[in-house]
Amino acid sequence: SYRETSAAYQQVQDWRTVHDVFLSSVEELSEVLPDHTYLTALTYSSRKIDVDGFSRSPETLISVLEGSELFSGVTFTSPVYRDAGEELSRVSISIVAGSASLANKRP
């Protein structure tokens, strides 16, 4: 029936939007994060991105990520710390992915 087909189509569209937002977010992270920063974990749920990793200059990460038109609400979710003798600091950050602009970024 038309109603079932329409509902199925909407589910596919919703799935595509979620995945497009996720892929755009990962792409944006790879573009804006400095070379001296690398991620060890990334989770995504309902426009919320949580990342863990290491950075030589963690104090710059919030402003770098907030500078992206696709991200907002960027915060550290745990204390930043550097192990003795290490150049990199461990970071955990929470990010809110943008709405429609993310879904429309991918070609």
Keywords:
107 residues; alpha+beta; five-stranded antiparallel sheet; 5 strands; disordered C terminus
**Gross morphology:** elongated
The proportion of strand residues reads 25-35%
The sequence of SSEs as H and E is HEEHEEEH
**Average pLDDT, to the nearest integer?**
84
Based on secondary structure, the structural category is alpha+beta
Helix-residue proportion: 40-55%
Helical run tally = 3
Distance separating the two termini: 32 Å
Largest sheet entry: 5 strands, antiparallel
Which spans have pLDDT < 50 for at least 5 consecutive residues?
Answer: 100-107
The beta-strand count equals: 5
Please state the CA-atom Rg, rounded to the nearest Å.
17 Å
Structure description:
It is a single chain. The protein is α+β, with helices and mostly antiparallel strands. The protein contains three helices and five strands; from the N terminus they run H-E-E-H-E-E-E-H. Strands 1, 2, 3, 4 and 5 form a five-stranded antiparallel sheet that branches. The radius of gyration is 17 Å and the shape is elongated.
Write a concise synopsis of the structure shown.
By secondary structure, the chain is an alpha+beta fold. It has helices at 2-32, 61-66, 100-105; strands at 37-45, 48-55, 71-76, 81-82, 89-97.
Secondary structure: elements and pairs:
Layout: H1 2-32, E1 37-45, E2 48-55, H2 61-66, E3 71-76, E4 81-82, E5 89-97, H3 100-105
Antiparallel strand pairs: 1-2, 2-5, 3-5, 4-5
